[in-house]
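Please, structure for the following, as tokens.
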Amino acid sequence: MAGNTSVPGASVVARTIALLSAFDEAHPRLTLTELSRRADLPLTTAHRLVSELTRAGALSKTANGDYVVGQRLWQLGVLAPVQTDLTRVASPFLHDLYAGTLATVHMAVRDGLKVLYLDRLSGQRSVPVVSEIGSRLPLHATGVGKVLLAHTSEALQHKALASLERVTPYTITQPALLKAQLERVRVDGYATTYEEMTLGQCSVAVPIFRDRTEVVAALGIVVPSLKRDKPRLVSALQVAAHGIGRSLSGRG
């Protein structure tokens, strides 16, 4: 919830952002009452702002009266540089990676204590996954998330280690154990998960560097098992990540 938006003096922009921020992966559809509660706004204020946002196309009202994010917000969202530049550069490498593995391939960036998925390729032979383009999942329970967490500041790592939620029985929730894993990620150059996000699914991921120093994203593959193919998958990921990073560096 946004919080503090109901206090006198909160700007219209702050209240509007609070309303839009009420939507997330767990709440893609909300009633007016739910929007009011999650944005910490009086119902009358929420009604007025939601009506304006709906007229502008930022929100859309469904047949049963719920509200969803509108096409206008989607059109604006895809203009964000992290979406357009990175996804455009990475696209051919992701397609080559998918063609060579037939596994679910995805690319993600860090968004606070979550991993935000920018692109995903999969097919009928790929293992089903919970990640979708635009979805946000826990850093500590995903391969791409562990990569991004391993290459972030100590302050953010400390914050993440203090709030480890269990997603499956195999999710790492012991701070000391996860911290040791993150150290290995920096040494080995890749991260793995074993049924930590979804039962029956394992993943391996590598960082994407720009100018060989800045980690701008992570590239990952989801498969049923890593017992036999981990070295091959790591190698394929690293080749693709190197190509993406080199292309990004060439663009300045």
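The chain has two domains: 12-76, 81-250. The two ends are 38 Å apart (CA to CA).
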